[in-house]
Amino acid sequence: xxxxxxxxxxxxxxxxxxxxxxxxxxxxxxxxxxxxxxxxxxxxxxxxxxxxxxxxxxxxxxxxxxxxxxxxxxxxxxxxxxxxxxxxxxxxxxxxxxxxxxxxxxxxxxxxxxxxxxxxxxxxxxxxxxxxxxxxxxxxxxxxxxxxxxxxxxxxxxxxxxxxxxxxxxxxxxxxxxxxxxxxxxxxxxxxxxxxxxxxxxxxxxxxxxxxxxxxxxxxxxxxxxxxxxxxxxxxxxxxxxxxxxxxxxxxxxx
Length: 255
Hints:
Elements: E1 3-8, H1 15-25, E2 30-34, H2 42-47, H3 58-63, H4 68-75, E3 77-78, E4 84-87, H5 103-115, E5 119-126, H6 134-139, E6 142-148, H7 151-166, E7 174-179, H8 187-194, E8 198-202, H9 206-214, H10 226-253
Parallel strand pairs: 1-5, 1-6, 2-4, 2-5, 6-7, 7-8
Antiparallel strand pairs: 3-4
């Protein structure tokens, strides 16, 4: 299907929760990469509640003496009972600068994984930080800014949206993923103000989100609740958006 990168403009709108939730519901084998430069693995500390030990991640991949392909296989860990494997993030924000030369070759390797039948979802954390994985955002099939639908969140997204429109940022296919659509602004208002398409909306469902964010016990009807339904819809919309963009690119090459 694709290489998908999720990032935020400020705060904690739900990037990690959304990335993990989508990965666990993804229809094909998928690699989840924790590329947030702030350090620490939200999966190990949150979803696994500290019961799973750190067994290597991005920093080991950056320092490997072998190929990115072989190194990625070594640091990837499976999530039992799912089609998901993941690469843990750095253990400290001080390691972020050591990843600078990793992002471009990793971007190419992720594209190769996709052609081999394994999709990739990247949690890029907050935009603009030291060590931010900019090549991953630039080269992904779809780069989504995750945002809430309130004025404070939109003010933070605005400068990034403007940079994308001016060409200061060169992402192949940018868009928005909105958490809590209509609280208070809807997708048409968001798209109009920011000049970016709203690719998907995720339900604001704190009890269900806590399952992914903190390893909480799933609430009643978790699998059919608002968050699960919206994640399934988001995956379908992402697939449609990527397929449409690829078709447009092919038409441009072969008019």
